Amino acid sequence: MVTVVGVHAEGELNEVITGGVLEVPGKTMFEKMKYLETKDDTLRQFLLNEPRGKVAQCVNLVQPSSNPAAAAGYIIMESEYYVPMSGTNTICTVTALLETGMIPMVEPVTHIALEAPAGLINVEAQCKDGKCVSVKFQNVPAFVFHLQKPVEVEGVGTITADVAYGGMIYCMVDARSLGIALDPSEARDLVDIGEKIKRAAAVQLPAVHPENPDIHTVNQTLFAGPLSEENGVKTARNTVIVSPGRHDRSPCGTGTTARMAIMHAKGEIGPNETFIHESLIGTKFTGEIWKDVRVGDVPSVHVTIAGRGWITAFHQYVLDPSDPFPTGYRLGDTWPANS
Length: 339
What we know:
CATH class of the largest domain: Alpha Beta
Number of domains: 2
Number of strands: 19
CATH topology of the largest domain: Diaminopimelate Epimerase, Chain A, domain 1
Helix content: 10-25%
Oligomer: single chain
CATH architecture of the largest domain: Roll
Strand content: 35-45%
Radius of gyration: 19 Å
Structural class: alpha+beta
Number of helices: 5
CATH superfamily of the largest domain: Diaminopimelate Epimerase, Chain A, domain 1
Order of helices and strands: EEHHEEEHEEEEEEHEEEEHEEEE
Shape: globular
């Protein structure tokens, strides 16, 4: 029996495991993540595959952290793989931990740190009347691997792409250059194109984290809408394609972070400037570069991301011993083949 809290962050559905799972072996959250990934992937399959899960869903496993600065740790499970960091998963986990009382809420602002597989994440949560109103977190340092590089994509042709790390590795392409308006009516077609771009970029534009070689290879495609500015605030629309083939319903926290690293490298944004990123369904994250740093020898930026989360459910998953699908199944009508 696995107890979860359902939460969505600006439209992106998550579940946060709050009971029924023992501590995973490993000293750090990254080690725990790698243990599940390489030695015991049954929990992720049990929760995310059908009939319990669905393709447009993520799960966060709360764990005790050995980092004295962290109130807790969390391991991020997506439908196709484990990832070192996720903005929506962070917002959902913070919302669940505070609103259920697993971590004491302090009004009007709760300051905590959580350990993600990518590293320590400092959080500032605005709270009122027992509700976590919004979550602002300091993401891991973001940096650029490639700027304006050609990529040959089957069925699309030669495109120009940027590749950056914001907690995951993104291939970012200009939507207008491909005739994409970023309208919800394009959603199905963008999934197919985005997965093709991701697979091509993963081969043609190698990307390895300078301090952790286990973080490598393009994870997702970000279609970037045009940048505009009003009253000193930069805004843009975007959508991120998550494997095996769906849209992130939110503006995507790590994608926003990666885009801001690219913008910074191009001179489009600087420290203490605000960037509002909008999703395909109209929800928004607010990003800000708060300082320049370095990761190894690579110029990088620290970015803060702010957004909102809402609890949607409290429930328990169970496994009947006679159930023929203990780790679930996938069917191609909703689970696109990732090949």
